Amino acid sequence: MILGHGAAVSLYPRLAWYGFRRHATYWAAALAGAFTNTVFGVLRAYVLIALWQARPGLGGYDVAGVVTYTFLTQACIGPMQLFGGGLDLPQRIRTGDVALDLVRPASLQLWCLSEDLGRAAYLFVARGAPPTLLGALLFGIVAPHAPAAFLASVALGVVVSFGWRYIVALATCWVMDDRGLAVFSLVVTTFFSGLMLPLAIFPGWFGSLARALPWSAMAQVPADVYLGTAGPARALAFQAMWAAVLLALGALMTGAARRKVVIQGG
């Protein structure tokens, strides 16, 4: 049994609002995360300023641009969950509660996506704004090249991030311990998202490959849209393509999980 169109239209926005309110409850944790992101943003900014003063124009950015890039990518950590997590699926798979989720008359994937969008909206404000504002006060950052396109890019980046994290979380159905998957996801996401360094500075085929992978859609692309170093139409199309691919793969995995679920401990 699947929810009718009218019921689905009302359900998923309510789930998004629930996700927003649920995470707003933990405001102290959000403030602590914002403080940590800000401190590391300042440290990253000083390191990258020294690098760009030694290599002006590296990767197509000037010093003001790379400082802005630094605080924008720090602001993406919370909404995009660049360090992984954000979903309850692995725990529910281990306890067996996912069996109930899979027989609901609603899409498990859309259910999780709706809650995750609410979570991301809250963290965009609570954990994303403070590092950016303090970066502007301490160093000065450039104004957005296309504000509406930037917000659309952030939204698509969240969907791409969810698509990847959902796949990693649902893969717990086929392994006995998800910690290896979590570590792998952490490593590839923090590196290939552009959080560590702008992907534009990587040379040759490796740089081209890094910029073509889905993780770049989570931080590198929104920052480039903000700075105007990437065309908005092409950047948004790139993100939308990866969002569609990852969501489609997640839907296939959900169908497979519904047919055969391996539950650790029961």
UniProtKB/TrEMBL annotation:
The chain crosses the membrane at residues 24-47, 120-142, 148-168, 180-206, 236-257. InterPro entries: ABC-2_transporter-like. Keywords: Membrane, Transmembrane, Transmembrane helix. The keyword Acetylation does not apply. The keyword Cell membrane does not apply. PANTHER family: INTEGRAL MEMBRANE PROTEIN, SLR1174 PROTEIN-RELATED. This is ABC transporter permease. It comes from Microbispora siamensis.
